Amino acid sequence: MTSIKLKFRPSKNPAKEGTLVFQLIHRRKVCRISSNCKIFNHEWDEESGQILLSSPESLRHGQLNLIRSHVEWEMQRLRKIADELEQTGGNWRAGDISKRFASCIDASQSVFNFIHAQILRKKQLGKMRCSETYQTTLNSFMRFRKGMDLTFGMIDSELMELYEAELRGQGLLRNTTSFYMRILRTNYRLAVEKGLTQDNHPFKHVYCGMDKTIKRSISFTEIKKIKELDLSQQPILDYARDMFLFSFYTRGMSFVDMAYLRKQDLKNGYLSYRRKKTGQLLTIEWTEQMQAILDKYQPNPTLYLLPIILKENGNERRQYQNQMMKINRRLKDIAALTRLSVPLSLYYSRHSWATIARRKDIPLAIISEGLGHDSETTTQIYLDSIKSWEVDKANRKILNGL
Question: Distance between CA 75 and CA 81 in Å, rounded?
Answer without folding.
Answer: 10
